[in-house]
Amino acid sequence: MDGDGLTPSAQTDWRCLALRAPGGDPDRTDPGGPGVEGFADTPWAAHAPYLTEVLAALPAELRSARLMSLAPGVTVPEHRDTPTGLPYGFVRVHVPIRTNPGAVLTIDGVEHRWQPGTLWYGDFSRPHSVSNTGDRARIHLVVDCLVSPELLALFPEAFRRRVPVSEVAYSRPEVPLHAFELADFRCEVPVPPFALRLDDQAGESTEPDLPARVIDDAGTLVLQVADGPGIALVHVGGGEFRFQGWTEERGVRLDLFGDSPRAVFFTRCGRRRRHVTRKAALARS
């Protein structure tokens, strides 16, 4: 980060300033990933009160929010951002701040020139590129949101009529556990490696499982992987958890209360759900 809060100008001169980030860290201009801390406003948000009002008006749980500037004469080659989109429960919306006729976003071969004063959604899991042949920077507020019925209601009706409701991974709100029941979910469990890789789907592989345990860390359940990250578990009901920093795309159900304690790790894309099961051992008191 520079002293002005912007990421340094890279070869592509694509610069970011984070208004929301994991743990509210102003140095985090990435879209986030699994961890212990949730998303929060950065100190830069206090310097942009109007933009924070825009963010507050979005009827969804927000993840990262970044001001992204593309310099004149720069082209970002075609690529995909995965996993994003309604089947993954995670959409990326744009609020154009400043643009020019030479600032063009191309998705699936179709050119778009999004204008200020509007809110736009693009399916960035599809091939897309962006170029700026104009004479000034193109600046967008880019916001990552979990999907809620209220957010989807903002989409044009013609679009919503084409979306199968069962294909949308709506975000379930957190159902906080009582303090007295946190100990019930403490356990030791092997974690299949796919569970820690965002682009990997559930399935058996030749890779060895990773030893891990679920602990109570100051009132938060954390999946602590040996020699790896700690991931807070967000309870969404019935002993099922999503990983802090990720969406309904993956998670774990802890079935610890029968004769065969187990953990069911799953991935989801729309109606398609895959899972693997591992034996768990209740934590020793």
- Outline the low-pLDDT stretches: 5-11
- Report the helical percentage: under 10%
Shape: elongated
How big is the Rg?
Answer: 21 Å
Structural class: mainly beta
Separation of termini? 45 Å
H and E string: EEHEEEEEEEEHHEEEEEEEEE
| DSSP helical segment count | 3
Largest sheet: 9 strands, antiparallel
Strand content of the residues, in percent?
35-45%
- How many DSSP-defined strands? 19
If you average the pLDDT, what whole number results? 92
- Main sheet: strand order: 18-17-16-15-14-13-12-11-19
Structural description of this entry:
The chain is mainly beta and 285 residues long. Helix content is 6%, strand content 40%. The chain has helices at residues 49-57, 149-152, 157-160, and strands spanning 14-22, 39-41, 62-70, 74-79, 90-98, 103-107, 110-112, 120-121, 128-132, 138-146, 187-191, 210-217, 220-225, 230-237, 240-243, 250-255, 262-269, 272-279, 281-282. It is elongated. Mean pLDDT is 92; it is low at 5-11.
Give the helices and strands, then pairings:
Blueprint: E1 14-22, E2 39-41, H1 49-57, E3 62-70, E4 74-79, E5 90-98, E6 103-107, E7 110-112, E8 120-121, E9 128-132, E10 138-146, H2 149-152, H3 157-160, E11 187-191, E12 210-217, E13 220-225, E14 230-237, E15 240-243, E16 250-255, E17 262-269, E18 272-279, E19 281-282
Antiparallel strand pairs: 1-2, 1-3, 3-10, 4-9, 5-8, 5-10, 6-7, 6-9, 11-12, 11-19, 12-13, 13-14, 14-15, 15-16, 16-17, 17-18
Describe this structure in a few short sentences:
The chain has 285 residues and is mainly beta. The chain is 6% helix and 40% strand.
